[in-house]
Amino acid sequence: NVDEKNFENEKIFTDSIIEAGEMKRLNDLEQELENEKSVVLAEINANFTDPAHIRMASIFKTMFKNPWCLDSGGNPSVVKNASVESLREIQKNYYTPANSAIFVGGDVNHEEVFQYVIEIFSDWKNPEEPVTLDKAEIRNRFTRDKKLVFVNPGSSDVMVNAAYYLAGPDGETDAEDTYPADVWTNLVNSPDGIFARTFISEQALGIPESDYVGATYPTRRRSGMLTFYASMLDAAQGPAAVPEVEDENYGIGSIDVVKEPVAEGKLNPAEKGDLFLSVLKKKAFPAMADKKLFFKERGTDFVIRQLEDSKIYDGESAEGILKSLSFFWSACGSDYFFSYDENIAKVSEDDVSAFIQKYMLNKNGTLVVTVSPEIWQKHKKRSSHLDETRDLTNRSMLMIQSRTDSDVLETDEI
After folding, report:
1. CA-CA distances (angstroms) from residue 233 to 165, 267, 366?
2. 297, 251, 290: which is closest to 274 by C-alpha?
3. 385 or 388: whose pLDDT is higher?
4. pLDDT, position 22
5. Strand 411-413 relative to strand 396-399: parallel, antiparallel, unpaired?
6. Residue 330: left (phi > 0), alpha (psi -120 to 50), or beta?
7. What confidence category does residue 381 fall into, taking pLDDT thresholds of 50, 70 and 90?
8. Rounded Cα–Cα distance for residues 239 and 155 (Å)
């Protein structure tokens, strides 16, 4: 009848309006996404004018199979090709209750907070088929050390900086090793410890004092790294000397030591990097693995008290608690945070020594030598294995070839 016909026409008309509204909303979203993509790409490109970002990007590329997983900006080509549909797929798979946490702190009533959360988020459901997160190996494994030189216009014209990177424990799979790693980090940076003394005594390196050498380990979910670093004067201080490095080779593929006497100021950046790495792998690592030497100045009890005191200090404010809790939730899970004091108190000297054996001895990684343009220009003419470079704007890193290695130059694009 007429009423049914009118109803059908009205329904068709209404559906058309809804469909047109959806299309307009989709078009608006797509335009908004295009605008946001331009902003994000501009930020990514701006990052690559920052020498520190360029340097870390190349380190990530060297150490990991997919370096973009460590860069919050992401791969520019992926960002450029992003669509509304792809973002919705990401939202559906990863922005889920099972993969999220809410942190609330301050002068609040717990029960009220729980009720608010239930009211606001009760209709937020997990997908029927949860996505299995990729657990594939993300690290590159090295049969020999890889070496890079980085020319940084922000570096001092009188210093050569060396940093060596090794794979460290991951919060996701090696949580039990992160506790001795924290104790080790505190011990290794003692200004009077065996680590600092080993490098300071190597006069050819030209390390002014213990503040110029050290090591770090930050806890991360899947990208834990150990970093060893030193800042060395470009001209070696003191009289001519032969590096006092033991003949026994503790590192697979480690660099042969410069054998001839080292005259003052004659080590170029590549040779300084080689010597730094040799001292690290042939002297410092074995010395740390020796409990009598490594724990001579401080024991684990002293360090554990310091770590516990630091956590108490962090817990004096709601902001400090939430910052620490949210960090460890993302790296290792909330249980890690609440059981940290209990587990750190169990760390023994044997645990720290086992950690050193597992992650340092007979391991290979990446050496990065950072110099200023002036130092680079001064030394590259004298070094057959450093005979060309590329501008920072090309986002490249140049392989350093030891004079005991091949003379073939290789380049790594970021």
Report:
1. 21, 10, 21
2. 251
3. 385
4. 54
5. antiparallel
6. alpha
7. low
8. 26
